[in-house]
UniProtKB/TrEMBL annotation:
Membrane association type: Peripheral membrane protein
NCBIfam families for the chain: murG
Entry superkingdom: Bacteria
GO cellular component terms attached to this protein's record: plasma membrane
Pfam families per record: Glyco_tran_28_C, Glyco_transf_28
Binding sites annotated in the UniProt record for UDP-N-acetyl-alpha-D-glucosamine: 10-12, 124, 166, 196, 301
InterPro entries associated with the record: GlcNAc_MurG, Glyco_trans_28_C, GlycoTrans_28_N
Organism: Formimonas warabiya
Organism placement in taxonomy: Bacteria, Bacillati, Bacillota, Clostridia, Eubacteriales
Pathway(s) per entry: Cell wall biogenesis; peptidoglycan biosynthesis
Family under the similarity heading: Belongs to the glycosyltransferase 28 family. MurG subfamily.
Protein name stated in the entry: UDP-N-acetylglucosamine--N-acetylmuramyl-(pentapeptide) pyrophosphoryl-undecaprenol N-acetylglucosamine transferase
Enzyme Commission number(s): 2.4.1.227
């Protein structure tokens, strides 16, 4: 069975695509998978390292408001459709899967017009423009959040599957994570992370909150600053007269490659609201304080965070509210109220989809033609 997967621009589109690719390889012994992206997107670096064949097409996002750049974008989209058509003719896929990003548009559109079965995966609570346009043409749509369902009118082909999460995230034991990070097993562990690049505003807000938070003997913090924010975070702490010398309840690190350790060790999470990260903390059943990245496309991180907040799984603090001390207030409430923490954990776990990858791969096989399975 030959399968094309396309998605790119950000890790939020790429990593779910790679998880789906791995799931298909495990489920279908003779699966041939081709990944199609762009030369400029992160996928050009990440996908070849994952060992998948990789080809590119020309495409870029539509510039708004209308300008000469918009015309250039439209021209590139047409060129991308033509390049995509040639890839489809050469590879002759049985199914084409799109996980979002501008690159999906031309390829999934071309596949649908050629009668090739197509499926989309939408990671965020509010679907991106590309997926909303393609939704009318494809054979199946998988969504991560229940809030996404209302944006797709053809209810019969929309499935609430969740987002595929790495097995390492689901299988890691708490004590293993605690030992790997050098933490105490007898304390409430709070993990703070602004994502792979860090979050300056979150680092600053936490540095101001630590003065009071660190007075609690039974609480410990593992704070991942991001590579570019580590030295600045140390400066922030110095301004608050907080020294790390001999301090056992606060660990500051620039980066952590094995996030599965941090998520296993954590009792509470403080972080951004990207869809992949939220899927991981939901599966782990972790209460959280979410600070959505304010410049995310279409403000999707705020909508993601609101999906958890509405279910009682998280508290949300907007970036512009950090200077008002709301992060400290939200975090203190969860730390002090054990029953609230348990309720939030249960709500988060209830939103997690442990069988997401299996459901998605079954849907992909289901939309293929019988003779291709």
């Amino acid at each position: 069975m030959r399968i094309i997967i396309t998605g790119g621009g950000t890790g939020g589109h790429i990593y779910p695509a790679l998880a789906i690719a791995k799931g298909l390889q495990n489920k279908i012994r003779e699966a041939e998978i081709l990944y199609v992206g762009t030369k400029k997107g992160l996928e050009a670096e990440i996908v070849p390292k994952a060992g998948l064949p990789f080809q590119t097409i020309s495409v870029e996002g539509l510039s708004r408001p209308f300008s000469y750049r918009t015309l250039a974008s439209v021209f590139k989209a047409c060129k991308g459709c033509w390049e995509g058509w040639h890839i489809l003719r050469a590879f002759r896929p049985h199914v084409v899967i799109g996980t979002g990003g501008y690159v999906c548009g031309p390829l999934v559109f071309a596949a649908a017009t050629l009668g090739i079965p197509t499926l989309l995966h939408e990671q965020n609570a509010v679907p991106g423009l590309t997926n909303r346009i393609l939704a009318r043409l494809v054979d199946g749509i998988c969504v991560t959040f229940e809030d996404s369902l209302k944006y797709f009118p053809a209810k019969e082909k929309v499935h609430l599957t969740g987002l595929p999460v790495r097995q390492e995230i689901m299988g890691m034991e708490r004590l293993t994570g605690i030992k790997a990070l050098g933490l105490s097993a007898n304390k409430t562990t709070i993990v703070v992370t602004g994502g792979s690049r860090g979050a300056r505003s979150l680092n600053l807000a936490m540095s101001r909150a630590y003065g009071k938070l660190l007075q609690r003997d039974q609480v410990q913090f593992y704070h991942i600053t991001g590579p570019g924010g580590y030295e600045e975070m140390l400066s922030f702490l110095a301004q608050e007269n907080i020294s790390l010398d001999g301090r056992e309840n606060l660990r500051i690190v620039p980066y952590l490659y094995e996030m599965e350790y941090a998520l296993a060790a954590a009792d509470i999470i403080v972080g951004r609201a990207g869809a992949s990260f939220l899927s991981e903390i939901m599966l782990r059943g972790l209460p959280s304080v979410l600070v959505p990245y304010p410049y995310a496309a279409a403000n999707h991180q705020e909508y993601n965070a609101r999906s958890l907040e509405k279910k009682g799984a998280a508290k949300m603090v907007l970036d512009q509210e950090l200077e008002q001390g709301k992060l400290f207030t939200a975090l203190e409430e969860i730390i002090n109220n054990v029953s609230l923490r348990a309720e939030m954990a249960e709500a988060a776990k209830g939103m997690g989809k442990i069988n997401a990858l299996d459901e998605i791969t079954q849907l992909i096989v289901g939309i293929s033609k019988p003779e291709q399975r």
